[in-house]
Design goal:
There is one protein chain. The protein has 4 helices and no strands. The protein is mostly helical. It has a domain of 58 residues. Helix 2 packs antiparallel against helix 3. It is elongated.
């Protein structure tokens, strides 16, 4: 790789960072609100799921375990751990 192409890539990276940085607070706010909405909806869905399992004859402990598995899809840590 030549010295000129490295400098060009670095300049492009700095331009990208410069374009992205001013939008970061708004994106953080939007994604935070979206996460809270998803988490709230998943909590409500988990309660309904557990209630239906118990209505169908599952004991409380087994219904709770299955609900925890069901709610793992809305857990942000799972996604972050998979990325890292």
């Amino acid at each position: 790789m030549t010295e000129n192409s490295r400098g060009q890539k670095r300049a492009n990276g700095l331009k990208l960072l410069g374009a992205f940085l001013p939008k970061l607070p708004l994106l953080t706010f939007k994604f935070g609100g979206l996460y809270l909405r998803i988490k709230s909806q998943s909590t409500k869905a988990g309660k309904r799921f557990q209630k239906e399992l118990m209505k169908e004859g599952f004991d409380k402990q087994k219904a709770k375990e299955l609900t925890e598995i069901y709610l793992q899809t809305a857990n942000l840590r799972n996604y972050v751990n998979n990325i890292i």
